[in-house]
Design brief:
The complex is a heterodimer.
Chain A (H helix, E strand, L loop, with lengths): L1 H28 L4 H6 L8 H11 L5 H11 L15 H36 L4 H15 L2 H16 L14 H35 L2 H8 L4 H31 L1 H6 L5 H11 L2 H29 L7
Helix pairs in contact in A: 1-13, 5-6, 5-8, 5-10, 5-13, 6-8, 7-8, 8-10, 9-10, 10-13, 12-13
Chain B lengths: L1 H27 L6 E6 L14 H7 L7 E3 L7 E3 L2 E6 L5 E6 L13 H12 L16 E8 L2 E6 L6 H5 L9 H6 L14 E7 L3 E6 L13 E6 L3 H9 L5 E2 L5 H11 L3 E16 L9 H9 L3 H8 L22 H4 L9 H14 L7 E7 L2 H16 L4 E7 L1 H10 L4 E7 L5 H4 L19 H12 L3 H18 L3 E14 L2 E2 L16 E2 L2
Parallel strand pairs in B: 1-10, 1-11, 13-14, 13-15
Antiparallel strand pairs in B: 2-3, 4-5, 5-7, 6-7, 8-9, 9-10, 12-15, 12-16, 17-18
Classes of the chains: A mainly alpha, B alpha+beta.
């Protein structure tokens, strides 16, 4: 397993390098100039010499290859440079938001799994019954309901019913758990519901497939308890595709909750992405895209490890 | 008996009046304490106001600093002392002497002197090395700055300037500490050190900016607030919700009419609404490097086709635009009287006649029915989208077909700079009503980098320079009118659509705040909150 992990980790390096090249080129193809956005977008009378001086200060006058080299040599030291907009280290900018995004992703995942696994299993076991139909309705509704829209409804409900809204500023969990949970539980519910819908459907179809297998029929014939058959024999095998879905959704949640973060005014990675792009903050966009790419690669790696643990027939070869 | 009853009633009535008057007086008595939570819907790129151009820095950080002189927050556009306790101008108008207040201390305990004022203004007007000053061009008239003693600062001007004092009252000219500027001119980009009523506590990017009262503030018994907390909320719906739920008391830039109504509907009598004309506007710039935009008749026809009065009535219900004006703010000290304004192309109240004239001019210019062109616009809904859609409809009514090209601010600015457009919705926002600020955009392309139309007009340049140096107020206004006529009626290089209207619905708990025509002039020294 160690060799497998090491090989997979080494394979990440060329993948990430390719990603860095693509990212670097792509962000510079987008029209717009951070200096003009900063100095002119408010309508100020700024002379061209001032604009040029700022471009020089930010290093934008250097050739592209020189800018790329400067950026790439810092990556192994986790030095992603400084934000062209705020002048702060990129790692600081990201770390500030990552704790919120990670916590929200974990909470949404827990909510989604807590809803999806029992519902998916129940729907599969009682296929065609009212339970199955009810689960189908709930999950289809979840798929059809955007998280941000559910979030808006939740806020409206809280405001009109309790004349109260969750806090608009983030308090870390270890500083004040109550304030932290009061803020994050609502977006976690909004996101977790849609997430659970995807996972429920995957659990149901995967369980249905497994329940038709010969070894499950044999287990029933042997008179094993239903709980043992469902959890030890069926669910463990059915979990392979479910784990993939959960992993990919989790990775998506880190940087993909752009609109939901806006609705709840969450200071997360998605909001930072939008700000970075609208400011043409090249260094920050590069850092964020690299982070998301690394998270996807890491999650895929962990899923592969989980596959082998769930199904010993698969090997690390 | 009747007399006794009358007497008792009179005494009771008198007592009631006294009680209610006392209650009213008590209600208006400023209260010391409390924290003001307010919304800022963008974030500051750096902390240095000399280099930035966004209200997103002014709103959270202005409270840490003082200016040399400032606009009176309760009585715009009166200029009142701040760190300068008095000032005088020489007879020829080319020397301004400011007497600096004694006993003012920076937040680190050091004493403010004239040296700090000189260093600050030299950083703004004569930046050295890689220091960027966004307002260098505003002070072209300044020849040098002197500090003959610890309490005197002298500005020597190359020419007399009628608006020099107002230019010094610029809300961007925060007074910094000379020693720090000399040691590291970039220090203020990441740090805060002023003499203002509030001390800096923390800035959590994407979340909030916090400040506490400066207990050693040089104005006695000020500030009233224990502190303030600026909440960064970029989403408009979330901002409205924050005020409705009481988590924030105000947002100082402005809301749309529908957002105002939403807040008032929820808060009822717990909301106060303040409104003012705004020194911001939308204009249309024509790319005169392209045909037929190089033809003044075509440009004039485009202006004639726009029903500004009708548009004002309709759009002001849904967007924060409304006032109809020329080159200077309606209601402002340089505003063109309505009767005179209505003589300019596109300002007539008889829109049918104006459009008939527009069609004639289009025919004369050889522009066929159904002629197509693009209108470049920003992807910001309020108010750009509303203005863009309105214009397209107006031009459709004289037989023109316009495609709305909406772009994000970055590509939008790039297209404007590169001249990659036919016509573009542009904008202008200033901190003060002054032709020097409002007209600079329209100078020849080789004089103003803000002129995206690509034209040269030596007459406009001359009129601008003359008004900028005229100390005779009436003569200056006459020159501004000439400028306006040439710009909007004769050459029609660019046209005004509508000026903006500032709408601030806030919690009734906020006191001591008076709306001004600029969202750059916020000042929290005298603001207080009730229980």
């Amino acid at each position: 397993m160690a060799r497998f992990a090491a090989r997979r980790l080494l394979l990440m390096i060329p993948t990430l390098f390719a990603v860095t090249v693509i990212i670097f080129v792509l962000v510079r193809v987008v029209p717009g100039d951070i200096v003009e956005l900063r100095l002119v977008s408010g309508g100020s009378f700024v002379t061209p010499s001032v604009i040029e001086a700022e471009r020089v200060r930010l290093g934008l006058n250097k050739p592209i290859w020189a800018q790329f080299t400067q950026w790439i040599v810092g990556i192994p030291r986790l030095d992603l440079g400084t934000s062209m907009w705020t002048g702060q280290p990129i790692t600081e900018e990201i770390a500030l938001r990552l704790q919120l995004s990670l916590q929200l992703a974990v909470m949404a995942t827990l909510i989604a799994v807590a809803i999806a696994l029992p519902m998916g299993i129940a729907a599969a076991v009682r296929r065609g019954s009212w339970v199955d139909h009810a689960v189908q309705v709930i999950s289809v509704a979840g798929l059809a309901t955007p998280s941000f829209w559910l979030g808006i409804l939740l806020l409206l409900f809280l405001l009109t019913t309790f004349h109260w809204l969750p806090p608009f500023t983030f308090t870390p969990l270890w500083v004040d758990p109550k304030a932290n949970l009061l803020q994050l539980i609502w977006p976690a519910l909004a996101v977790g519901y849609r997430y659970s819908a995807v996972t429920t459907r995957m659990t149901r179809s995967s369980m249905l497939e497994v329940l038709r297998e010969d070894y499950v029929r044999t287990a029933w014939a042997k008179g094993l308890a239903a709980r043992v058959i469902l959890t030890r024999h069926a669910l463990r095998n059915a979990l392979l595709p479910v784990v993939t879905v959960i992993g990919l959704e989790f990775a998506f949640l880190i940087g993909g909750l752009v609109v939901t973060e806006q609705v709840f005014n969450l200071n997360g990675i998605g909001k930072l992405f939008v700000d970075a792009i609208s400011h043409r903050d090249y260094t920050l966009i590069q850092g964020l895209l690299l982070l998301v790419a690394a998270i996807y690669i890491l999650v895929n790696f962990l899923i592969d490890l989980l596959y082998v643990w769930l199904d010993p027939r698969l090997s690390y070869g | 008996m009747r007399q006794l009853r009358f007497l008792v009633a009179a005494v009771l009535a008198g007592a009631l009046v006294f009680v209610s008057m006392s209650a009213s007086t008590v209600a208006q008595q400023p209260r010391r304490g409390g924290t003001l939570n307010f919304i800022v819907n963008a974030e500051p790129p750096s902390f240095d106001a000399h280099r930035e151009a966004t209200f997103a820095l002014i709103h959270p950080a202005r409270g840490h600093y003082n200016l040399l002189v400032k606009f009176d927050p309760q009585n715009y556009p009166k200029v009142v002392p701040d760190l300068a306790e008095s000032w005088s101008a020489s007879a020829d108008g080319r020397t301004y002497t400011f007497k600096i207040r004694r006993g003012v201390r920076f937040h680190d305990g050091s004493t403010l002197t004239a040296r700090d004022i000189k260093a600050t203004y030299e950083k703004i007007i004569f930046p050295k090395g890689d220091v960027v000053s966004a307002r260098q061009a505003t002070y072209e008239m300044v020849e040098r700055i002197e500090s003959p003693d610890a309490n005197t600062v002298v500005f020597r001007l190359k020419w007399r300037s009628p608006s020099f004092l107002q230019a010094v009252a610029s809300p961007w000219n925060w007074i910094y500490k000379a020693e720090i500027i000399e040691r590291d001119p970039h220090w203020y980009e990441r740090n805060v050190m002023g003499t203002g009523p509030f001390k800096f506590v923390e800035y959590v990017r994407g979340s909030h900016w916090a400040a506490v009262r400066n207990e050693n503030y040089w104005v006695r018994d000020r500030p009233y607030l224990d502190g303030y907390r600026a909440l960064f909320i970029t989403n408009a719906t979330a901002a409205v919700n924050a005020i409705k739920s009481g988590q924030a008391l105000v947002e100082f830039r402005g809301f749309s009419p529908t957002q105002r109504d939403d807040i008032v509907a929820t808060l009822g009598n717990r909301a106060v609404v303040q409104e003012s004309n705004w020194i911001c506007n939308n204009i249309v710039v024509f790319n005169t490097r392209r045909k037929p935009f190089d033809d003044a008749r075509f440009r004039k026809a485009l202006s004639l086709a726009v029903d500004r009065w009708g548009g004002s009535e309709a759009l002001s219900r849904i967007a924060f635009v409304g006032p109809v004006g020329g080159a200077t703010r309606p209601g402002g000290p340089f505003a063109t009287p309505p009767a005179e304004l209505e003589k300019l192309a596109g300002y007539s109240r008889d829109i049918s006649a104006a459009r008939a004239q527009a069609r004639r001019l289009l025919a004369e210019a050889g522009v066929p029915e159904g002629f197509e062109f693009n209108l470049l616009n920003r992807n910001i809904q309020m108010p750009y989208s509303f203005v863009g859609v309105f214009l397209i409809d107006q031009w459709r009514q004289v037989g023109l077909r316009v495609t709305h090209v909406v772009k994000e601010t970055g590509p939008y600015l790039a297209d404007e700079r590169a001249g990659n457009f036919d016509a573009a919705v542009d904008f202008n926002c200033d901190f003060y009503d002054d032709p020097d600020l409002q007209l600079v955009k329209f100078l020849s392309v080789n004089k103003s980098p803000l002129n995206y139309g690509g034209y040269n007009d030596s007459i406009l340049d001359r009129l601008y320079t003359e008004q900028s140096r005229s100390l005779d107020a009436a003569h200056r206004i006459a020159l501004v009118r000439q400028f306006e006529r040439r710009l909007l009626d004769d050459r029609v290089w660019q046209i005004y659509v509508l000026w903006w209207k500032r709408i601030i619905p806030h919690s009734a708990r906020l006191h001591g705040y008076k709306i001004s025509p600029s969202h750059y002039l916020e000042d929290y020294q005298d603001v207080w909150v009730s229980e």
